[in-house]
Amino acid sequence: MKTYKPTTPSRRKMSTVTYRGVLTTNDPYKPLTKGFRRGSGRNAYGRITSQHRGGGHKRSYREIDFKYNKLDIPAKIQTIEYDPNRSGFIALAAYKDGAKTYVLVPKSVKVGDTFIVSEKADLLTGNRVMLKNIPVGTFVYNIEVKPRAGAKLVRSAGTFAQVVAHDNGFTSLKLPSTEVRKVVDQCFASIGEVSNDEYRLRNIGKAGRSRHLGIRPKTRAMARNPVDHPYGGGEGAQPRGTRRPKTKQGKTTGGHKTRAPKKYSNVHIVSRRVVRKKK
I want to staple 162 with a disulfide (CB 3.0 to 4.6 A). Which of 8, 105, 174, 223 is the partner? Predict the structure, then answer.
């Protein structure tokens, strides 16, 4: 982590991830980038569904290959780059047939290293293997939920899942949330853990940096008007005024389970995640 001299109050505790010695270029590969409009927390009708999002620095989108369709063709890492749209680092991979793609880079991989996507590839960091051929105890990331549908699980910086069992056409994985879930063993997963594990230790430090990241200010619920929140209104500071904690839309929260009791994927959950109290 990189820390700063306390030249201002906001600088005193600010910290950032050290990129020197990790990233190899500042310029993205143009054929795999494009512009895009950020939704700023709005749905298809333009209504805000996620609060406190908007603004931020302009970004170009890097097209990441999560499907890995190039089977049994070795690829070489050419660059390791920063991606403003995700927490882990990305790498430009050049396949032996001439194709180039961006991939999510695992920890400890360097420029010049190679990887391969194969059903029975060697269990080396970065290689992509079918789950049924991965032994118990191995750390994996970029996991498919349906065969050949592309990686959906475990893509954030520093995360990994652990293979805990194989049984009856399914592989049981312990996810970063501590949930143990069954996945069809015909799905592919990458060996290792996602890069940039220091990401969670960074300290934003000042309000301006949050605005650059696209995070807008939050107003306390009790400081709002009654029309804006169930906790709003009253002369001076007031208690909550409702028996149970509620969201802006009036839905009960604070211990209330929000997962649908008949959700289709419930049958694949071996054990639910352990919910810990916030410190």
Answer: 174
